[in-house]
# Entry
Amino acid sequence: MPNDGPLRGLKVLELGHFIAGPFCTRLLGDLGALVVKAEPPGQGDPFRGWGLKAGEQTLSWALQARNKKCITLNLKHAEGQALARRLVRWADVVVENFRPGVMARLGLGYDDLKQVKPDLIYCAISGFGQDGPLRANPAYDQIIQGLSGVMSVTGSPHTAPLRVGYPVCDTMGGITAAFAIAAALFRRSRTGAGEAIDTSMLEATLVAMGWAVSNWLIAGVRRVPRAVPAGVLIAVTAGELIQGRPGAEGGQRGPDQNFCQQGGHPHALVPRPWEMLPLAGARLTLTDPAPTATYTGMLPGHIAGHYPRDALEIDLVRLARHAGAL
# Structure
């Protein structure tokens, strides 16, 4: 199906593999760019075999390879390298996410390819950037999660560090690279100049962690991991969760307060289990003093499971506004 997005007419050559580079080009393709993905002979991109299969391909691959035309290209062979240079002459943008130095050894680094196409936008994505003491280190998503501090603020004080449940650092690297490519294309439209873009997954992740990183680097305050965000109560019903803010932001009452004062009855409100925060204004009864204590409404007969989940979610949103399903 033709894509009439804002990048229609843009030609992108992807020399990437796994997640960060292909995710970047997927975003460009979603916006209308024509993406040609070059894969090594044999199994192709190793990501083809990852995840749940649906027929002959995995669902992860189907998502990552959408809006792309895939070709086989052996970059280790002289003929394949020559073909890559021909494709570069055709392309506006080249994206790769090999370890720093790999493309230069193949004669396909930015300094080589800008001789072929002077106005080329060349984007290299790596774990730690193209220079610096960590440039040659392996950089899988989980490694970056650990080094960036993502894992240290994920979970609770009893379970951290925990890995985020999806490749967040690969994703942030891909998003950052796509954003940088868009900026470089805008600059080229005014100056005619090409650009070499160096995207570090670690730096991209740290930028996204601004609130936690600034607390530590500027104020010297180490962020404490929390199982749920600060000031959030969890209403448990029929085995499912609803989250709501009980705080007084802008003088607003929390969902527990509204329910108790307006006749609602969320029968199980669970505070942050490790802090036992007082529930100001809420008519709730402590039924279990353990660290995982459950606070239940005082209205008799309303016990866990007797309040329909959908009704609870609708009423929480209506009365408190700061609420949503988990």
Summary: DSSP finds eleven helices and 14 strands in the chain.
